[in-house]
Amino acid sequence: MTLILTNDDGIDAPGIRSLLKAIDGKGIIVAPQLEWSGCGHRVTTTKPIQVQRRSDTEYAIAGTPADCTRLALSHLCPEASWVLSGINAGGNMGVDVYISGTVAAVREAAMLGIPGIAVSHWIRRPLIVDWDVAARCTAKVLADLLTRPIEPGTFWNVNLPHLEPGSPDPEVVFCQPCTQPLPVNYRVEGDNYYYVGEYGKRKRIPGTDVDVCFSGCIAVTQLRV
């Protein structure tokens, strides 16, 4: 099984190293040179995309997460079995998936006929992310999802909760995505509008991914192109 790893936080972000650890280092990294958080499914078609080969198993791409998937599957590693994206520093639940570059990378894979799994880590400040714990929890989820049959045109979206240090490993819950909007609040100073919506105060339908993850469990949803 050949696994492609990408993200939207950039190739040097700790989350993608945690994801690599979760699969025992047996993946090929094709990730953006820079951060593209919140870029959605943006792709590059009107200018060249520079590819920097760092090693036999690592490529830094001067493009978006969806660009990384396109290049990986068409040129750099066309024999890939799965595309894994993350671990994102921040949640990607419910309607977040339309904004997220992390999720766009695996949506692009599904469009191209390759299954994918996006993994994100909700951040509950002031707690600090323990990336070793994130790797352990992700390994547990991937051990299940990578062996499950998956319908063409679908992909998995995984969100890890942010727990207190020393907490037991969280339960994995398969659920539906929340359809409630994100907080849309701005502070106005003259002609400038500053976004001040609080992610942790978003509406949550009981039993959906936002509610499951905020309640301390790993939320897993299956999404369709």
Automatic annotation (TrEMBL):
<dbReference type="InterPro" id="IPR002828">
    <property type="entry name" value="SurE-like_Pase/nucleotidase"/>
</dbReference>
<keyword id="KW-0378">Hydrolase</keyword>
<feature type="domain" description="Survival protein SurE-like phosphatase/nucleotidase">
    <location>
        <begin position="4"/>
        <end position="166"/>
    </location>
</feature>
<keyword id="KW-0479">Metal-binding</keyword>
<dbReference type="InterPro" id="IPR030048">
    <property type="entry name" value="SurE"/>
</dbReference>
<dbReference type="Pfam" id="PF01975">
    <property type="entry name" value="SurE"/>
</dbReference>
<dbReference type="GO" id="GO:0008253">
    <property type="term" value="F:5'-nucleotidase activity"/>
</dbReference>
<protein>
    <recommendedName>
        <fullName>5'-nucleotidase</fullName>
        <ecNumber>3.1.3.5</ecNumber>
    </recommendedName>
</protein>
<comment type="similarity">
    <text>Belongs to the SurE nucleotidase family.</text>
</comment>
<dbReference type="GO" id="GO:0046872">
    <property type="term" value="F:metal ion binding"/>
</dbReference>
<dbReference type="InterPro" id="IPR036523">
    <property type="entry name" value="SurE-like_sf"/>
</dbReference>
